[in-house]
Design brief:
This protein is of the alpha/beta class. It has a single domain, classed as Formyl transferase, N-terminal domain (Rossmann fold, 3-Layer(aba) Sandwich). About 30% of the residues lie in helices and about 25% in strands. The protein contains six helices and nine strands. The chain has a seven-stranded mixed beta sheet. Strands 5-6 form a two-stranded antiparallel sheet. Helix 2 links the parallel strand 2 and strand 3. The longest helix has 24 residues.
Length: about 210
């Protein structure tokens, strides 16, 4: 509560987004961050010099940190860490970043205990359909619903602690593009919500995640 004409000063939160391709989720996060004066996207890290996201972020005046992969994971991550070292990053958001981060890299960004400060969005109701092509995996399996999960990153594959998870229905008339489009619309809705949670320090890691 503000009293006596005083202004509440919130602690600055610096975010870096990692993306490899089209970057629609990245743009949604950037736009959402503008709603919070104390949250700033201080950079976008990209491993693909020809990614569409590098053009899309230009109007936002956000530094693009392009670190092409040259065949060696260790040296690639070392260069990324060097690029990030001057940015004072509090959280990393993966938004279509197509590389698996090593345990050593993740350990550089720890929140508390074993929890990292790296967040990922995955297009399934984890733990179902981990890894690549999750929409295709779910569609081919014939499930009646799939979903989107936002989770902390750990050293496993899509195995980190869940922050948000929500389902969407598969309709009898769905083609694969219909099914995927419905899931992507849910992605665009859910991922920005995590910025609000971080801004309010309201991520609840102990809640039960349940779906029918």
């Amino acid at each position: 509560m503000l009293t006596g004409g005083m202004t509440l000063q919130l602690t600055r939160i610096n975010i870096c987004i990692f993306a490899s391709g089209n970057g629609t989720n990245a743009i949604n996060l950037i736009r959402e961050s503008k709603k919070y004066g104390h949250i700033k996207v201080v950079g976008l890290l990209c491993d693909n010099p020809s990614a569409d996201i590098l053009q899309k972020i230009k109007p936002f005046d956000i530094p693009a940190l392009v670190v092409p992969f040259k065949g060696n994971k260790l040296s690639h991550e070392k260069e990324i860490l060097a690029q990030l070292s001057h940015l004072d990053i509090h959280w990393i958001f993966l938004a279509g970043y197509m590389r698996i981060l090593s345990a050593n890299f993740i350990n550089q960004f720890k929140l508390s205990g074993e929890r990292s400060r790296i967040i990922n969005i995955h297009p399934s109701l984890l733990p179902a359909f981990k890894g690549k092509d999750a929409y295709q995996q779910a569609f081919d399996s014939g499930v009646s619903q799939s979903g989107v999960t936002i989770h902390l990153v750990d050293s496993g594959i899509d195995s980190g602690e869940v922050i948000l998870q929500e389902a969407f229905l598969r309709l009898d008339t769905d083609t694969f593009p219909d099914f995927k489009s419905r899931g992507m619309q849910l992605e665009y809705l859910l991922y920005p919500q995590v910025l609000k949670m971080i801004s309010q320090n309201s991520i609840d890691f102990n809640k039960d995640i349940a779906h029918d």
